[in-house]
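Researcher: I'd like a structural prediction for the single chain below. Treat it as a standalone chain; there are no partners to consider.
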Amino acid sequence: MNVFAHPNHSRPFVTAWGFLLLLLLSLPTNLRADPPRLTSPTANTCNVNEVFTYQIGYEYLPENPAVVRYDAWVEFQPVGAPALTLVVDNVTGLFSCTPSGITPTGSPYGIRLSVLFADGTNFSPPITLAVLNPPVPVITTSTNRVVKVGQYMQHQFEATPRLDVYYSTSPLPPGLGLLVTPAGDAQIQGIPTERGSYTITVSATVAGETGSTNIFLRVTHPQPWMPSWDNITLLVGQHFTYTVTTNPTADATPTLFDIPE
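Model: Treating it as a single chain, here is the predicted structure.
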């Protein structure tokens, strides 16, 4: 037996679905896409007087349309904090700044980002930037050293962090000085000229934070030595004189030995 469906029974159903599909296809692309979402950090920190860089990251599904322009500007400046200047690359979305002062606790800078897409969407999420003091520098060095008068010496030390560090030493024994290298470490070097025991305070300052440590330096004389004795012939009844010399000669006390008769 053949069964035939009446053609008028299915036509309204198909027509309704077709109309809905045409309606969806006719909607603008930006109405069909999910809203943009920020993928780069929203809460940020950096140290004062250090360069802070930020790359704007986003997700805009499903198409991820092209970006026409990136931008960023300071929307909120905390009370007491210095003005913050942003250097923005409008093509890549990378911006940077160098804060010159810290922000109050719980009151960071407010920065507004802007991403203009080719479909006309302007995405403008906010982020924050808190500026902190760097940690107190920690000086790494050996704290005890024995050197000798008249001999070249160097004693190296370095601070962490090493960026824009200022070193100082006090006091230094005569003949010694402080040398700071371009790499950010330092050393006490020179030729000590006076013996004695010295406590040298070494300090490192970074962005107003100072760390220090003590180096205990003892300067001694080198072990004296005498030239080899020559073979000397003495004559009976004649006066004999021999000058004993040492190296070094300073503060050297010769020991006299009895010469048998």
